Every structure is written in C-alpha cells, then in structure tokens.
From TrEMBL:
InterPro entries assigned to the protein according to its UniProt record, in alphabetical order: ABC_phos-bd_PstS, PBP_domain, Phosphate-bind_PstS
Organism from which the protein derives: Streptomyces sedi
Family statement drawn from the similarity comment of this UniProt entry: Belongs to the PstS family.
UniProt-recorded name of the protein: Phosphate-binding protein
Cellular component annotations (GO), alphabetically ordered: ATP-binding cassette (ABC) transporter complex
One GO BP annotation of this record: phosphate ion transmembrane transport
Length: 374
C-alpha cells in the first residue's frame, strides 16, 4: 500500500527547529544529548511529509544524536508534525513499545523470541514486531590516562580490564601491546552502564565471542562483569571518564568526539590496531548478514574479525515496529518519518555526526519494509 503524502514545506527556520527539537527530543537521566558536532543544516529540499500530528517513541540512547538531527529535520520541513523521542535506553524503550504506549522503539539489541511473541498483543490483526536497522557506528572505548594519547588494547586485555583482573595501566599485558609507550603506575577504574543498555550487550557480545576465556559472562543488556563502577547512560559514562584519571568506559563515537576524549585502537590480530572511525565500522557492517526471517531484518555481525581496517565493536540500532496491525491513528506519520530516516537524506546525515549509514541491499530492504507497514 503506497503512502499518500503532502509535500513538505520549509516553514521553520533553523532557530525554530532547534527550539522545537529541544522541546520534543527528551532524554532520561543524564542522557541529554545536545551540542551536535559542527553546524547541522536541518533544511531538506522536497522532503515528503506525512499527515501531521504527534508521534511518541523511545529507546536507544545510542541513537539519540541521530534522532535529534532526524527529528529536527523532519519538523523543520513538515509543518504540523511533532516527533517525541525519549532516550530512555533500549530495554525501557522496548518495554514501552510492548505496552502499546509508543509507535516504535529504538533498540541496540535484538528482541528475544518471547518479546516477539509478546508484540502480537500490540500489533493487531496478526502483526508482529520486526527489526529495521537504521543507524550503526563504533562503540568507542574512551579513557583518561595522562600522557598517553594513543593506546592499543585487544579483546583479552579489555575483558580482563572490565572484569577487574587487570587493575593498573602499567600492567605487563598492556605494555606488551604498546611498546615504547610510557605507561603510568596508575589504577584503572572501569565504568559501565547502570541502566539496561544495548550498548552494554554489544560490547559484552564482542568480549564473549573474541575472548571467551577472559570474559565468561553471557552477553546481556545488564552488566555482568565483576567490580568497576557504574553511571547512567552514555553521557553519564563520559562524565566519569572526564572526571577520573585512570578511567575507561564505553559509549558511541559521537560522545567521544563531542567531548574530546581519547579512544582505544583495537588490536584485532590484523597488521595494525584498528581505530574507531565511521569508515572502519562501515566495513564491519558490510560484512554483516541478515539473519531475520519473513521480513525481519536482524543482522549478525562478525565480532571476531581479523580483517584489515574493520573495527569489531560495532553497534547497530534498530527501530522496532509492527510489520502489520499498527495503530491507525499514528500509522501514516510513523511510516512517513521512518521513510525519511531510511531514505537518502536521512542516511546521508549520519556520517556527519559520527554514525555509519546502513548501505547497500540492507537499506533497500528497510525502505521496502517501511513502505509495506499497515
């Protein structure tokens, strides 16, 4: 079924768009993601708009910066539309979607089979929840070690750091990976998310698959490692790294760049340690396989890759939607907004703010699934 749209009008100026975004893109706890890198132009020529109205969504804080650009751009070009996205974290966002209080959820981890089954109560007329990969990017490992602007770590060493088995920055395992670097005799303070997080699940999946002997814990949205300290949300972890010498934590690359934090180069066994960049994470997405069935676009990543220039700790954010049986009151606006985010303009904006666009056949499938929502 084709969506009937009215032509968008650039009725709001940039200042008004920013003000609108500040009102409707709300965050939970410390995940207040303002101050996007560089000057972002929210005007788009000939953006196709939905019918107007208000849309509620919540979830992944990893995509909060991307959602800020998408929301502001859509509202700047589509008068009468208001998109309310709350960066509550993937776990909370999925629960709100399953309770029927939001039109879609952002999640950095896949739904469980039980959650898919539960979604049938919300998705009417035989519909169910599916995964639409919409943005990707590296999970950066930010650290605060004075005098060490370049640092390489491998999966085994990272696992032992975050599991409190390596406790000082001049540990022989770290020194062996960084020959010639003057590492200080400084205590390591690893920080992890206190809230349920798809970022945590993706990091721990990498550790579990790449260094299972050193990270025996099953991947989970909730932190399972031993010791360390916690903070709420990605921006909470950023604050802890900034304030504590010897700290290390994990968050999306955009947070590291916004706050001028040093990030770890990951030694994957390739000839050179791999830097956390958009291009290097795009290389990882290019190796991903679609493992979802019947229109579901869940991806499987190769966390243990040794390919040159492939950053292995990559997060894919999915929009969780009903493939059918959506609420008629919000269907057209949901479809129009996601059509924009998955479209060329929406995906092009990602690279400017340290996200990796979804490309190739996968994004074409996403666009087809959005168009088919009913």
């Amino acid at each position: 079924m084709k969506l009937s749209r009215t032509r968008g009008r650039r009725a709001l100026g940039l200042g008004a768009a920013l003000a609108a975004g500040a009102l409707v893109l709300t965050a939970c706890g410390t995940d207040d993601n303002s101050g996007l890198p560089g000057a972002v132009d929210f005007t788009v020529d000939d953006l196709d708009c939905g019918p107007g109205g208000t849309l509620l969504a919540s979830g992944s804080s990893a995509q909060a910066n991307a959602m800020e650009v998408w929301v502001n751009t859509y509202q700047a070009n589509c008068e009468g539309s208001q998109i309310n996205y709350k960066a509550t974290g993937s776990g909370a966002g999925v629960q709100e979607f399953l309770q029927g209080t939001t039109a879609f959820a952002g999640s950095d981890s896949l739904l469980s089979p039980a959650e898919v089954e539960e979604s049938r109560r919300v998705c009417r007329d035989g519909g169910r929840a599916i995964h639409l990969p919409m943005a990707a990017g590296p999970i950066a490992l930010g650290y605060n070690v004075p005098g060490v602007p370049d640092l390489a770590l491998d999966a085994s060493t990272l696992a032992r750091i975050f599991d409190s088995a390596i406790t000082r920055w001049d540990d022989p395992a770290i020194a062996a990976l960084n020959p010639g670097v003057d590492l200080p005799d400084l205590a390591i303070t690893p920080f992890h998310r206190s809230d349920g997080s798809g970022t945590t699940e993706n990091l721990t999946t990498y550790l579990h698959e790449s260094a299972p002997e050193d990270w025996p814990h099953e991947p989970d949205k909730a932190w399972r490692g031993r010791g360390g300290q916690s903070a709420d949300g990605s921006s909470g972890l950023v604050g802890m790294v900034q304030q504590n010498e010897g700290a290390i934590a994990y968050f999306e690359l955009s947070y590291a760049h916004q706050n001028d934090l040093d990030t770890v180069n990951v030694d994957t066994g390739a000839d050179e340690p791999v830097e956390a960049t958009v291009d290097n994470s795009s290389n990882a997405i290019g190796q991903a396989e679609v493992v979802g069935e019947d229109g579901d676009l869940a991806l499987e990543l190769d966390y243990a890759t040794r390919e040159e220039g492939v950053y292995p700790i990559v997060l894919v954010t999915y929009e969780i939607v009903c493939d059918g049986g959506n609420d008629p009151a919000t269907l057209d606006l949901t479809r129009a907004f996601l059509d924009y985010t998955a479209g060329e303009e929406g995906q092009r904006a990602l690279a400017e703010i340290d996200y990796a666009p979804i490309s190739g056949d996968v994004i074409e499938q996403v666009r087809n699934r959005v168009e088919a929502m009913d």
